[in-house]
Structures are given as C-alpha cells and as structure tokens.
Design a protein that fits this description.
The complex is a heterodimer of chains A (about 80) and B (about 220).
Chain A lengths: L1 E8 L6 H12 L12 E6 L5 H16 L5 E7 L1
Chain B lengths: L1 E6 L6 H10 L3 E6 L11 E4 L13 H4 L2 H11 L3 E5 L1 H9 L5 E3 L7 E9 L15 E8 L3 E3 L2 H9 L3 E5 L10 E5 L5 E4 L17 H13 L1
Parallel strand pairs in B: 1-2, 1-3, 3-4, 4-11
Antiparallel strand pairs in B: 5-8, 6-7, 6-9, 9-10, 10-11
Classes of the chains: A alpha+beta (about 80), B alpha/beta (about 220).
C-alpha cells in the first residue's frame, strides 16, 4: 500500500518562498494570483495492507518526524 | 566543568565550539551522533552549527531524532545545561526542548555577516557575563533563522524573560526580533548567532567570549 503525505505551512505562518513565487508569476504577466503557498509531498511505499493501520502508522510518522506541527499541517492520503 | 560537543554528519562549527569552551576553562569531549550515551559527569551539552544531515526534510529534524538526542533530552530533563548554536538551535526546537521553529529567512537569502545583538536578560548562566541591555557584535550565518512562535507563546516568553538576545536590526524576520531563547528553567539556550566565532582577538572581536566565560564560571561555582 502507498501513502502520500501533503505538508503545508499552517495558516498564519508567513511563507516567504510562496510569496517569491507569487511575485515571479506577476512578473510573467499571470494576473489575479492572490496568494501562493508552497508545501511538500512525501510518498511512502508501505508493507502494511490494512488501510486503517497504515493511516494510523503514517499519522504517527507525521507527528514524530515528517511534519513539524508547530509550523506545519499535514494530510495523509492512501493510494 | 566537563562539556560534550555533539557531532552530526554535516556539523561544521564543532571544532570552533570546542576551542571556545576549552579556552574558557572547560574540559571538552566530542560525542558522535550514533553514540547512545554521554560520557559520565557531563555538566553541559553543546550542539554546534552546521548543516546536520544536509538540512534534509527540515533543518535539524533528522539530527533531533538521532540516537544521542535521546540522551540530550534526558540530560535537559534532569536539569542539565544544553546550548544550541545556529543548527544546534534548530535541533533544540525540533526536539521540543525549546518552543517555536526556525523558518526560511524572510528575505529568502542566506545571510552571513556580523550583527548587533541586545542582551535582554543576564538572568541565566549563559548571559551572566553580560549586563542586561548590553549591545554585542556577533556573526550570523544562516538561511533558516526566522524564529516563529505563536502569539501566546511569544507573550509567555517575554513575560518569563526567556528572550536572551534580540537583533538590534532584524535581519531575518524573526518574531519580536528574537535571536536566542531560554527554556523555562533557564538552563537550555538556543541562539542563531555564533558567539564561538567572536571569542578571541583574531576573530576581529571578543564579544562572544563573555558567554563562554560567564557560563563556565557559573557552572564551576554551582
């Protein structure tokens, strides 16, 4: 079973890289981009076949290592 | 006074920190990240600057989960002293020993220059060599030094006088101009600037030496 983890900076945490991308889009004449937030995606190939167990394990991984919950939020997707 | 300097793959200020501590009078042992135990009788653990594990995932995140860091957290839990400089500060926030996190600099650039710091409190072993309000010149060299904490934690840090140093002219967007913070028991300090790079005349100044002499003086007489 595979899992995909989406990690984003929390709302309220300034994302200077996203802001830089927004400015760059503006300079390429893409109009109307009100905001850009940049995150990361981590794909995991798991031996686990039980979806509920896999989701619990990956959530545990996010809390312990994959995300820093002081500044980041995460979402686990099983694929 | 016996200090341990932790070395991770990618640490690059470990030797500087060893020299600064030794010249201030400490006996220093280097400890490799795969070790699980510290030498007996350690008074201070120092986590150096650098790019531990290539800054992969997040700065300090992999180091914070290395075998030796369990001993670092246990040492702090027993009331031991822990100093984290630059990447060491990032490691300490990732372990949860200090609140907050270090984000990418607001200007997105890696900044390497000497900056003015204000000593916000001399009520800690680390800052006992200074007077509150002193302005000292210390180099910074970081890409991710933008200190972030939520508003409630920021208020608590100020109320408890746990902000050790602030930037006079904020270079990286840190909330409240914060350059260094103390734990609740004032025995864990994390700071982005490098006092070990301004500790003897050949460095161009000695403003950082007061941190090491004050710290070792306080721990030797404790």
């Amino acid at each position: 079973m595979k899992a995909r983890v989406h990690i984003m900076l929390k709302n309220g945490v300034l994302d200077p890289q996203g802001e830089a991308v927004r400015h760059a889009l503006g300079s390429l004449d893409f109009k109307g981009v009100n905001g850009v937030r940049q995150g990361k995606v981590i794909e995991l190939d798991l031996a686990e076949t039980d979806a509920a167990k896999a989701e619990k394990t990956v959530t545990d991984m996010c809390e312990k290592l994959l995300a820093n919950t002081v500044i980041e939020s995460y979402r686990v997707e099983l694929i | 006074m016996h200090a341990a300097v932790i070395v991770f793959p990618g640490s690059n200020c470990d030797r500087d920190l060893v020299v600064a501590l030794e010249r201030a009078g400490a006996r220093v042992s280097k400890v490799w990240h795969k070790d699980t135990a510290l030498p007996e009788g350690i008074d201070l653990i120092a986590i150096p600057g650098g790019f531990s594990f290539g800054d992969y995932l997040r700065c300090g995140a992999i180091a914070a989960n290395s075998p030796i860091c369990k001993s670092v957290v246990a040492h702090a839990g027993k009331g031991g002293y822990v100093l984290g400089v630059c990447n060491g500060f990032q490691v300490l926030t990732e372990t949860g020993l200090l609140p907050g996190a270090l984000l990418r600099n607001a200007g997105l650039k890696y900044i390497c220059k000497t900056v003015e710091l204000r000593v916000e409190t001399n009520d800690s072993a680390y800052t006992s060599g200074y007077d509150t309000g002193d302005i000292i010149n210390i180099p910074i060299a970081h890409h991710d030094g933008n200190y972030f904490v939520d508003e409630d934690t920021h208020t608590r840090l100020r109320d408890e006088r746990r902000v050790a140093f602030t930037y006079v002219d904020n270079p990286n967007g840190s909330i409240g101009d914060i350059a260094g913070v103390l734990s609740q028991n004032r025995r864990v300090l994390g700071m982005m600037p490098h006092p070990e790079r301004m500790a003897e005349p050949a460095h161009g100044g000695t403003d950082g030496a007061g941190l090491f002499s004050g710290l070792i003086g306080a721990l030797t007489h404790a």
